[in-house]
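User: I'm putting together notes for a lab meeting next week and I want to include a structural view of one of the chains we've been expressing. I don't have a solved structure, so I'd like a prediction I can at least talk through. The sequence is below, exactly as it appears in our construct file.
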Amino acid sequence: MNVPSNQLLSGLDIRLARREIARILRAAGNEFAAEESDEFLMATAGLSRAELLSSDWVIDAKAARCLEDYIARRMGGEPVDHILGWREFYGRRFSISKNVLSPRADTEALISHALTHIGNMKAPRILDLGTGSGAILITLLLEHPGAVGTGTDLSEAGLSAAKDNALKHDVQAAWHQGSWFDALPEPAAFDLILSNPPYITDEAMTRLEPEVKNYDPSIALSGGADGLDAYRNIIASARDWLAPHGWLGVEIGFDQGEAVKTLFEDSGLDDVSLHQDLGGHDRIIFGKKSPQ
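Assistant: Thanks for the context. Below is the predicted structure for the 292-residue chain, given as structure tokens.
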């Protein structure tokens, strides 16, 4: 599939450009062609969605070259968020790259349930294990301004991305490099520990779509033979790092609900609850450390 030269886009008003870009993407088999056409135009013109629909902007040669590049990269299989360099999460933009897992809409359920557990606390202490882009921790710190946050990640590049996003959103947090709790420099007690750990099985890793396999880091995806390696590591030590009445919450794969729920219960966590995403799939589990 050939990408049109910018001469074909240059001079078009935004309404015609929306249709033309969508037509090109649709012809390449893209089922979200209209939505992605709008994303590219909004990014190029610096317009909001409402402004896009009412704008009379006419594409000049420079903008046409930018759009041509976006189209070519998308037709080559690169995800839109990697092309633009950001992903929207909980109503905010977070910078992403191949060094971090791009935050997904399903993970917003983790935020919503976490906020119900810390809503009445003045200064909850939050730990985000495997923070990646920092989207989970930064979002909670913005939604609960009194919270105190710590993020860990095995990847130095991942922590760098989290720090950059924290700076962008004017959020202060402590960041530590290392594996799960081993990254923490000293003992601490947290009111809320969260993680969206790698949970894809070894077998499923071989069947990942190219848009995931080629752009999200495997370290953030691969969960071992049964997909539960990270959960075992985290849950085994969680009680040692939770304050009395503190909560542990994790995101899970759609078919891992009962297995991870059992790990929670066997570790001694109480009030274990399983929650679904907007699609009705098991997605989030929380459990509480009750005082001995």
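A couple of points you could mention at the meeting. The chain has two domains: 6-76, 99-288. Strands lie at 86-89, 92-95, 125-129, 148-153, 174-177, 190-195, 242-251, 270-276, 282-288.

User: Perfect, that's what I needed.
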